[in-house]
Structure formats: structure tokens, C-alpha cells
Amino acid sequence: MQNVGQAARCFRIFLAMAAFSFIAPAQFAEAAQLPVGDKIITLIAKDGSRKNIGRLTLKPDGDASRISVVLDSPDFTDEFLSMRPFRCLSGPKRMWCHLPYPYDLHGRISPTDLMDLEYALMFIWRTYDRVSADAWNGLYFKLAVGEDGVISGALHEADYNLLASPPAEKYSRPVSYTDLTPVLSSSQVWDKIEIR
């Protein structure tokens, strides 16, 4: 009988551990919460140097947050490329030009869907010997929110020719994660972004 009791206790412990292994990831995922208020948007270079480029304002809206992005760093310069104005940042070998998304978005994010914010932070790079902004030189930050509320992400390349025509459905996001390619660390001066 003692062996049976010990076996029953071991089985109950096993079931409790198994249940925790399924519950814990969901609890950890829920621990990541969006910050509230004004946050600084910072580009991070390979050598760890940082460049503040603007502000993100988050206002709670039900189970998500409304966002407003202002890129107001004095490091931006006004450029006229491909017959349209851009605001650009100068790097050692390449210029980054902000690409405002031209179609409608909700301007709303959640801890599991940061894509509207990602769309507000799209750039195109060009070399200094070019006078055009080429859509296939797209730069896209794939973001995530950490347990400490910091939003961050790594740089990817994307072909923004997908944006040449309005999407068939309003508020849809034509550039998806399957269209992204991780950027080689040596190809761009900034390879990460952080919002805190």
C-alpha cells in the first residue's frame, strides 16, 4: 500500500508539473505590456552608439493603445528624391530616408500586434551617388515588446514596390513578415531600434 501511495503522489506531482509547462508560457506572454505616454525612439548602431530620432506617444484604448509617431530629430534633413520630398538621416556610406506609409491604418497596436507602429518606422536607404529613392531598398524593423515594456526590434530588408498601389482592402498591411530578409550586420550603420 505504501508503494501505491508513493506512486499516486509521484503521479500527482507529474501532472502538476505538466500543467505548469503548458500554463507558464501563456503567463509569460501576458506579462509583456505596452508602455503608456511619451517614449523616445532610438536607432542603435553595431558599435552600440545611439541616435534619438523621435517620439512615440501611446494612449490606452481598450485592450490596445492608440499611437502617434513624431520623427523630429534635428539630424533629419530635407531631401528631394524621385520627384518627392523625404526627410533623411545621413550615415557614413548611406542615407536613410523615412517613408511615410501612404495608405490608411488604424494607428493602434497591442502587445501581440505592433505592425501599425512598424509601418510608421519604415525607411529607404540610398547611396550618396544616387538622386533617386529606390523602393526595393526598403528597411523594416520587426518589433516586439519586452516584459519591461521596452519595444525593440532588429532591422530587415523589404521591397516596398508592394506599396505602389493601394491595398485591395482598407487598413490591410501589404508588407508581411514573409517579405522580410534579415539585414547583414555589416551592410547598415544602424541595425536595431529601441523605444523606451
Overview of the structural elements:
The structure is a single chain. By secondary structure, this protein is α+β, with helices and mostly antiparallel strands. It has two domains: 1-31; 33-195, no CATH class. 18% of the residues lie in helices and 39% in strands. Strands 1, 2, 3, 4, 5, 6, 7, 8, 9, 10, 11 and 12 form a twelve-stranded antiparallel sheet that branches. The radius of gyration is 22 Å and the shape is globular.
Return Rg in Å.
22 Å
Oligomer: single chain
Total helical elements: 2
- Estimate the helix proportion, in percent: 10-25%
- What shape does the CA trace take? globular
Mean pLDDT: 87
How much of the residues is beta strand, in percent?
A: 35-45%
Order of helices and strands: HEEEEEEEHEEEEE
Number of domains: 2
Measured between the Cα atoms of the first and last residue, the distance is: 60 Å
Count of strand segments? 12
**Uncertain segments:** 1-31
Assign the structural class, choosing from mainly alpha, mainly beta, alpha/beta, alpha+beta, or little secondary structure. alpha+beta
Q: Major sheet, described briefly?
A: 12 strands, antiparallel
Give a nutshell description of this structure.
By secondary structure, the protein is an alpha+beta fold. It contains two helices and twelve strands, in the order αβββββββαβββββ.
What descriptive keywords fit this protein?
196 residues, alpha+beta, 2 domains, 12-stranded antiparallel sheet, 2 helices, 18% helix, disordered N terminus
